Amino acid sequence: MAIAWSETAASMEALSLSPPMSPPVILTQDELKKIAAYKAVEFVESGMVLGLGTGSTAKHAVDRIGELLRQGKLSNIVGIPTSKKTQEQAVSLGIPLSDLDNYPTIDLAIDGADEVDPHLNLVKGRGGSLLREKMVEGACKKFVCIVDESKLVKHLGGSGLALPVEIVPFCWKFTANKLQKLFQGSDCVAKLRNDGEGKPFVTDNGNYIVDLYLKKEMGDLQVASDAILRIAGVVEHGMFLDMATTVIVAGAELGFR
Ligand SMILES: O=C[C@H](O)[C@H](O)[C@H](O)COP(=O)(O)O
Hints:
- Helix content is 26%, strand content 24%.
- It is of the alpha/beta class.
- The protein has 2 domains: 3-151 and 242-250, Rossmann fold (3-Layer(aba) Sandwich); 163-239, Alpha-Beta Plaits.
- The strands form 4 sheets. The protein has a 5-stranded parallel sheet with strand order 4-3-5-8-14. Strands 10-11-9-12 form a 4-stranded antiparallel sheet, with helices on one face. The chain has a 3-stranded antiparallel sheet with strand order 6-7-13, with no helix packed on it.
- Strand 3 (49-52), helix 2 (56-70) and strand 4 (78-81) form a beta-alpha-beta unit.
- Helix 1 (29-41) packs across helix 2 (56-70) and helix 2 packs parallel to helix 3.
- The protein is globular.
- Residues 53-58, 111-114, 124-130, 133 line the site of ribose-5-phosphate (R5P).
- It comes from Gossypium hirsutum (Upland cotton).
């Protein structure tokens, strides 16, 4: 039983949790997320301005930063949250917060992802926070992405799950149809995300999310990104191309070497 993590797709390191002959330890997906998160927090130094990610993996990193602050092992940290939820979590942990207006350059951001391809391109936003995440992580000197191994895909969209696009609510069907048509070559189905109670899901920015389900590869990702952003009504999409500087992957096998 071992845990592996990678700093880049090309250079990967592994950490053995137990000697080869010891009995196997079964870790849950959440424990793997926590291991990746704690590893990422090792990059944090006192005095840093930190982008605080959103989601079940990033939550562990924010908890850990709060813990290290409480213990006096970190000091003089300023957090820039990527969602209202993370803002609430950070406030409850006593992490001092600010925003991009006051700190246009961020030292380090730590955040999860929904998909990671072999070139460290990401899909994010299945929790609905993609716009603020892209703004904050786009302003970072270093963006450490933390995932468990279930997030690794051969190509973006490869999980068969959603590629989220944040759109304005005005005439959302018009925008959703345009998005579906744009990717008709990938057999795309565009669905408005709902809140689980029959109403549209509303982002922290008051917008809607259209989830794109793609059956085939998108082709050139930068071309696809530009085409999405050219549709009037689109605010931002969940492809994070060339943004992660490090991806930490926690997995149950020593299969990365
Ligand atoms: O909008 C949500 C964010 O992009 C999350 O970072 C992403 O969905 C991964 O979340 P989780 O760590 O819960 O899988």
